[in-house]
From TrEMBL, chain A:
Keywords: DNA replication, DNA-directed RNA polymerase, Metal-binding, Nucleotidyltransferase, Primosome, Transcription, Transferase. SUPFAM superfamilies: Prim-pol domain. Belongs to the eukaryotic-type primase small subunit family. Signal peptide: none annotated. The lineage of its organism: Eukaryota, Metazoa, Ecdysozoa, Arthropoda, Hexapoda. It comes from the Eukaryota. PANTHER family: DNA PRIMASE SMALL SUBUNIT. It is an enzyme of class 2 (transferase). Its EC number is 2.7.7.-. InterPro entries: DNA_primase_S, DNA_primase_ssu_euk/arc. It holds the Pfam family DNA_primase_S. The keyword Chloroplast does not apply. This is DNA primase.
TrEMBL record, chain B:
DNA primase is the polymerase that synthesizes small RNA primers for the Okazaki fragments made during discontinuous DNA replication. It holds the Pfam family DNA_primase_lrg. InterPro entries: DNA_primase_C, DNA_primase_lsu_euk, DNA_primase_lsu_euk/arc. Its cofactor is [4Fe-4S] cluster. Residues 284-451 form the DNA primase large subunit C-terminal domain. This is DNA primase large subunit. Binds 1 [4Fe-4S] cluster. Gene3D superfamilies: 1.20.930.80. Keywords: 4Fe-4S, DNA replication, DNA-binding, Iron, Iron-sulfur, Metal-binding, Primosome. Belongs to the eukaryotic-type primase large subunit family. CDD domains: PriL_PriS_Eukaryotic.
Length: 399, 491
């Protein structure tokens, strides 16, 4: 129903959406829990109004104020910032950031050099699979490696996903800490001028990389067939550029050119040639020991926007905000359900408000599920916050 | 104030109390010294420690030695000996817990001098970073070279208690430890469990096994835990020291001394320029007077009429630094960007950033153009064209680019060779020589310095015919101007 969406109608529809559909109560609980021990009022919110007027340093102290602010300003987009030592509107530039969820932002535009189905702002069910892989790998790493539990996954409304980690340790992590976590999770590095963006060296592969590769393997052939990475001349060139060893590159080039265009076929033959080459030239192994793994990672591993993660006070679009360009709701989803998520089933403001729209019932239903997903995360966060406060209290009594 | 009395008290220290204050060679510098010392000793100690820290910086930056390697250590030790700082060379070589008079005196000097330099280096972020980096190198080196029993004493003295994990627990995770820890023979090592944020340097490099928020480290990696603590503590202490600077500066005798100490390190930050460069000349300037990092950004902008955020920041601040006015800068970006977008979109989404760079928006700081160090350490992601081309380009790409610019093939090979070895700034200097057809061998550490040197050359302020002796002096001066910073991070 994207065709029916009209940005100009937003100002009329949003007040109803905020009152009737936006989960204000859970939202406030999530934010205040994530701000504690500071009060909710110290948390920065920012609004983008019609015509891109930008309001920063807003804050609320309870649900009532949120509702009033929504009705008064009617924000087209809602962003969430950091928790300050005082009400953000008072000190503005002089206030000190005390806490902030650890956030991750993955955008499909960063996959433009590998995806073949869409480019730039366009997305389809095929490229959504990159997000499925990204979500699974990150979720697992955050839970298993870092021990985080309150992890919220949000569809950004157009071409990416956001992840919010609300655990106390994550919220209070300092800048170097955020940097280190981001670097730990970031395997693809380099810009326009670097073709090969993954370098795994020749030592043992780190446990987290092995785990990520296992996840990629579940999807690799499927994505390969969807995207046909190596079917075109350009695609093939892209693969060849990733092979640092000249002799191997020539062998691969000769072999693959003759093959039919199927990427899966070409990939299998590439792996064959590579393995044969490694058997014959043991000495060359060091440089290309993990070549197959490196290529898989370059094509499928999550491409994080590390600046968002590293910045302590980077603003990020709130869950359940409406994407002003698509009208889609930034819904909360469960990571193990990402695979089954259909982009055209994501509720839009239009279909929610218009009962007669063809997909209205389904969208309303999906909206409810999404709010439920949100609630689940918030409940568990509240529980662990209560536990933390109790332990803290006990420790201080012991002294 | 009677200086004589002070001197007396330092000359006859009570040894009994010294051993209590300084039981160990390696210190965390938690408690500041409280004794009275003479101004003369104050000055001597400060200068001696400065020599030590400079020696460390020279070893990493100028000699290009890998920090903590044997050659690095040897260089510093022999340098300290040559400078007559035997007590520092001893402390640097190995840390013990001896109790001779010489040991105690060395520790006392080490302690006092560290705190004096805190005062000299707390006044701005640039200085603090330099100081913290050096002190951290020193601390790490001394920790690594601690004798076995000294390690135990050190942990005891500093109330550091960590329990190793049981054999059963270790057996359970041994495969993961083997995969994720970068030491051989981990079978024979005891492992300890610490929170992941205590060993961020290992996390960053993926050199430690993480599980449930804990990092599993062998004894050897404790240097990470301690240096992280040391760093945090030092950073906080510097902030506190800076706060109290006003009180200290009421004593004029100290003011001159403290301010003079670090002066050789505050290079130009190019935040304010007097020159005015019209944007019409950018195309021609970019060919000769722009370093490669800026030239490629300029070319990319002309070609694609767009740059991503990192590129806009790096190039925008550089332009400000060479003397493009805010109005010109706005016009320049507008003209390019509006070739692919509406004027409205540009004004709303991009003009803010241009004004921001000039300190007209947001926190209204006058931002300095990025130094080489900053650029080399930039994060460069998909679609980005900024960063240092010698670090962030494939060798083949770099080669094509340089050949495309019509550089002499020999020069191209030279540049590519040093790039491969990781000497990015040397590569930049060679590029400078190649585009100017000259052999200067400047030490380039700031894109705006590249620009200024080039302009001086073109305008004939530097004599071009260089004899051998002249060349050597130019080189030396350039090196001395270098901004020694946390270069070890990208080694």
């Amino acid at each position: 129903m994207v065709g029916q969406y009209d940005e100009n109608l937003l100002s009329d529809m949003l007040p109803i959406y905020y009152t009737k559909f936006f989960p204000q109560n859970v939202f406030c609980r999530w934010l205040s829990c994530g701000s504690s021990p500071q009060p909710l009022a110290n948390r920065e919110l920012s609004f983008t109004l019609a015509d891109d007027v930008y309001l920063r340093y807003l804050s609320i102290s309870n649900q009532k104020e949120l509702q009033t602010l929504f009705q008064k300003k009617c924000p087209h987009k809602l962003d969430i910032g950091a928790v300050y030592n005082t009400k953000p509107s008072i000190a503005r530039h002089d206030s000190v950031v005390l806490a902030r969820e650890l956030v991750f932002d993955i955008d499909l535009t960063d996959y433009d050099e590998v995806r073949t189905c869409c480019q730039e702002a366009k997305v389809c069910q095929k490229c959504w699979k990159f997000m499925v892989v990204a979500c699974e790998i990150l979720d697992k790493a955050l839970k298993d490696d870092f021990g985080f539990q309150s992890i919220l996954w949000v569809f950004s409304g157009r071409r990416g996903i956001h992840c919010w980690v609300s655990d106390y340790e994550a919220r209070t992590l300092d800048s170097p800490g955020r940097g280190a976590v981001a670097d730990y999770l970031c395997l693809i590095m380099g810009g326009e001028n670097q073709s090969k963006k993954v370098h795994l060296g020749s030592d043992n592969l780190h446990t987290s990389i092995r785990r990520a590769l296992n996840i990629i393997d579940k999807y690799f052939e499927e994505i390969l067939q969807d995207q046909e990475f190596f079917a075109t001349a350009d695609g093939l060139k892209g693969l060849l550029k990733l092979i640092p060893d000249e002799a191997l590159r020539t062998q691969v080039e000769k072999k693959l050119e003759k093959l039919p265009e199927s990427s899966l076929e070409r990939w299998k033959h590439f792996v064959n040639v590579y393995e044969g080459y490694c058997r014959e030239n043991g000495f060359a192994m060091r440089k290309i020991k993990y070549l197959v793994e490196e290529i898989k990672i370059q094509y499928c591993y999550p491409r994080l926007d590390v600046n968002v993660t590293k910045g302590f006070n980077h603003l990020l679009k709130s869950p359940f905000s409406i994407h002003p360009k698509t009208g889609k709701v930034s819904i909360v989803f469960k990571p193990n359900n990402a695979r089954r998520m259909k982009l055209d089933e994501v509720p839009t403001i239009h279909s929610l408000l218009d009962d007669s729209a063809a997909d209205s019932a389904q969208h309303q239903n999906n909206m409810k599920t999404s709010v439920k997903n949100f609630q689940e995360v918030v409940f568990s966060l509240e529980k662990s916050e209560a536990m933390r406060r109790k332990t803290d209290a006990n420790i201080s009594i012991d002294f | 104030m009677d200086l004589n009395i002070r001197r007396k008290s330092t000359r006859a220290p009570v040894t009994g109390s010294l051993i209590e204050t300084y039981p160990h060679d390696l210190q965390m510098y938690k408690i500041p010294p409280t004794e009275n010392i003479s101004l003369q000793e104050f000055e001597t100690l400060a200068l001696e420690r400065l020599t030590l820290l400079r020696s460390l910086a020279t070893a990493t930056t100028l000699k290009g030695l890998r920090a903590y390697s044997d050659e690095w250590k040897e260089y510093v030790i022999s340098d300290l000996r040559n400078q007559g700082l035997k007590y520092y060379s001893k402390l640097f070589e190995i840390s013990r817990c001896g109790a001779t008079e010489a040991d105690l005196q060395a520790r006392r000097k080490d302690h006092i001098a560290h705190f004096i330099l805190r005062l000299a280096y707390c006044r701005n972020e640039e200085l603090r970073r330099w100081f913290v980096a050096r002190e951290l190198e020193l601390f790490k080196m001394r920790f690594i070279n601690m004798s076995g029993d000294a390690v135990e004493t050190f942990f005891k003295l500093n109330n550091l208690c960590y329990n190793n994990i049981s054999e059963e627990e270790k057996t359970e995770i041994i495969t993961f430890l083997r995969e994720s820890t970068s030491h051989p023979n981990i079978e024979n090592m005891k492992f300890y469990k610490v929170k992941f944020f205590e060993v961020l340097d290992l996390v960053k490099l993926r050199k430690v096994f993480l599980s449930g928020g804990y990092a599993y480290i062998p004894h050897k990696d404790f240097v990470s835990v301690l240096s992280a603590q040391f760093r945090t503590h030092l950073r906080q202490s510097l902030a506190v020291a800076c706060h109290h600077l006003g009180e200290i500066e009421q004593d004029e005798r100290l003011v001159c001394l403290l301010k003079g100490l670090h002066q050789s390190y505050t290079g130009n930050n190019y935040a304010d320029t007097k020159a005015v460069v019209p944007i019409e000349s950018l195309d021609s300037l970019s060919v000769k007077s722009f370093p490669l990092c800026m030239r490629q950004l300029h070319d990319q902008l002309r070609l694609a009429h767009h740059l991503k955020h990192g590129g806009r920041l790096q190039y925008g601040l550089f332009m400000k630094g060479i003397g493009v006015t805010l109005e010109d800068s706005l016009r320049f970006w507008r003209e390019e960007f509006t070739k692919i977008m509406d004027l409205d979109k540009f004004e709303k989404q991009y003009a803010y950033n241009v004004r921001y760079n000039y300190g007209k928006e947001g926190s209204k700081k006058n931002y300095s153009p990025f130094s080489c160090l900053r650029i080399i350490n930039e994060t460069v992601g998909p679609g980005d064209c900024h960063g240092c081309p010698y670090r962030h380009c494939d060798v083949s790409n770099l080669k094509n680019k340089l050949q495309g610019y019509g550089l002499d093939p020999q020069a191209v090979n030279d540049i590519v060779d040093v790039t491969k070895k990781g000497h990015y700034q040397v590569a930049c200097s060679k590029y400078f020589d190649a585009v100017h057809s000259i052999d200067l061998g400047l030490g380039i550490n700031h894109p705006n310095q590249f620009f200024e040197e080039s302009q001086k050359l073109i305008k004939g302020e530097i004599k071009v015919e260089i004899k051998k002796e002249n060349k050597a002096t130019v080189k030396k001066e350039a090196l001395e101007e270098m901004d020694f910073d946390e270069i070890s991070e990208w080694n």
